[in-house]
Amino acid sequence: MLSRFMSGSIRNLEREYSCTVRLLDDTEYTCTIQRDAKGQYLFDLICHHLNLLEKDYFGIRYVDPDKQRHWLEFTKSISKQMKSQPPFTMCLRVKFYPPEPAALKEEITRYLVFLQIKRDLYHGRLLCKTSDAAMLAAHILQAEIGDYDPGKHPEGYSSKFQFFPKHSEKLERRIADIHKTELIGQTPETSERNFLQKAQMLETYGVDPHPCKDVSGNPAFLAFTPFGFVVLQGNKRVHFLKWNEVTKLKFEGKTFHVYANQKEDEKIILTYFAPTPEACKHLWKCGVENQAFYKLDKSSQVRTVSSSNLFFKGSRFRYSGRVAKEVMEQSAKIKREPPEIHRAGLVPSRSCPSITHGPRLSSVPRTRRRAVHISIMEGLESLRDSAHSTPVRSVSHGDSFMPRSRSQATDASERTAVISDEAYSPSDSVLPTPVAEHSMELAASRQINGAPCSIEEEKESEAGTPMQGEGGDFGADGRSAHEGAGGDSALSEVEQVNKFVLSVLRLLLVTIGLLFVLLLLLIILTESDLDIAFLRDIRQTPEFEQFHYEYFCPLRRWFACKLRWVGGLLINK
């Protein structure tokens, strides 16, 4: 009896595994789930834990052993998606950024989006002018520590906070001045709402950058936002395509294509190259999901998308979930008492600390990250900002989901499309999450390999001038990087030729296979004695009898004659 009980317990343990999800405030939620549980089950557990109803904007992200990021698919089994062994570790993140985050129905949802954007700001994904950076940081201060109190906040108190990858003393003083004079009396909820209103006006709001290279070998960052497809190079947005202009997204190997119609007769094809085929597939799936979420009116309009025009090759993927319009309609129907929010306050964060004790670090952010595979670091080195930027394409931001104030502000600044005083290089955003402990040696290596640039120097008038520490890109190291980019371009051309040859061979093999199947069917029809109704009906048709006597029988006699002749030659030899 005891042995039977023990064996049953062991079988139950084998059918279960532990799963840890790191939340946006860096607390952890751990649960035990069945081995065949799907992603939706885990996501529902987390949303119930957070008392979250507007959950369609969020997703669960994980990193595979090859350091490639993925979004957990809710319709598939968790264990089949994870390439590692349990226990599993994942992160809750904003997957679809709300077009108007300040207008979200519930405070708990706004707070979680606030934490995500604050994280984006810290890791260099949300890039902005110095004046905007000071206002955003002041709102974070007000939300976390409240009104300025001379007794609690001594001179230089803002230097204890790390809002950006890098920043200057002048910016710290400006942050403190705004916090002391302009935000007095604001509650945390009001400050968070004002922070969201300011953030949604920025060009890089909602950007989750994917590092790629263009056809010339120049590094670029591709991203999908609530308003469309964006390409960033240097400190400029070089391409913007609204979702209603994007007609198709395709990928093959490491090559990613975007098809769009900007005008009635103007068709555009943008081509970029991802670091790996897995990264390119992840980029394609993110694009398919974002296009469906923001572009469609109903989830019933979602269709399965193929990465290729040929039915026998490529990947197939279908977005599962509600679209933005349905989410907003459902949110308007929420009627309940607002849930209690436990704000993190001054609790230190693992990957996005708000407050750090000790001297200010202006060049190396005080984060703790897991040691990264050397190929990732080499990838960051190859993705340093290039001096060559494609011409800026001026487009409007008109969209059915866009706030009017954002559209007006964008129209005023659309001529230059400069998004920041510094280059866009979000190194942290391409590193894997979740994060763990690391040494200062890794931080130094990140700085060498293109550490995230954000707000350091107060030089609003020198937006196009290389900053100190960036000039090396155009020296000897810059020349070698440019030569490497040329080599990569040549390699990419060879890869394209090889892919074309493989595609032709694959098409030829499929055609031969189809012809062979048709030949077998023809032989069965003409030579076999199978008395099947389907075959009998075909044999009795006049067309088949004419084909049999006028074409097939002469062809059969000709083949038999040739075979006898070949056989005679072989016998005589």
UniProtKB/TrEMBL annotation:
GO cellular component: adherens junction; cytoskeleton
InterPro entries in UniProt: Band_41_domain, FA, FERM/acyl-CoA-bd_prot_sf, FERM_2, FERM_central, FERM_CS, FERM_domain, FERM_N
Chain segments annotated as transmembrane: 500-526
One of the Pfam families matching this protein, by short name: FERM_N
Claim: Ligase is one of the keywords in the record: no
SUPFAM superfamilies hit by this protein: PH domain-like, Second domain of FERM, Ubiquitin-like
Domain FERM as annotated: residue spans: 17-298
Gene3D superfamilies: 1.20.80.10, Phosphatidylinositol 3-kinase Catalytic Subunit, Chain A, domain 1 (3.10.20.90), Pleckstrin-homology domain (PH domain)/Phosphotyrosine-binding domain (PTB) (2.30.29.30)
Record GO biological process: actomyosin structure organization
SMART domains according to UniProt: B41, FA, FERM_C
UniProtKB keywords: Cell junction, Membrane, Phosphoprotein, Transmembrane, Transmembrane helix
Subcellular location(s) of the protein: Cell junction, Adherens junction
Region (Disordered): 348-369, 382-432, 455-487
PROSITE patterns: FERM_1, FERM_3
Domain of life of the organism encoding this protein: Eukaryota
Biological role: May be involved in regulation of cell migration. May regulate cell-matrix interactions via its interaction with ITGB5 and modifying ITGB5 cytoplasmic tail interactions such as with FERMT2 and TLN1. May regulate ROCK1 kinase activity possibly involved in regulation of actin stress fiber formation.
Protein name: FERM domain-containing protein 5
Organism: Dicentrarchus labrax (European seabass)
Gene designation: LOC127352945
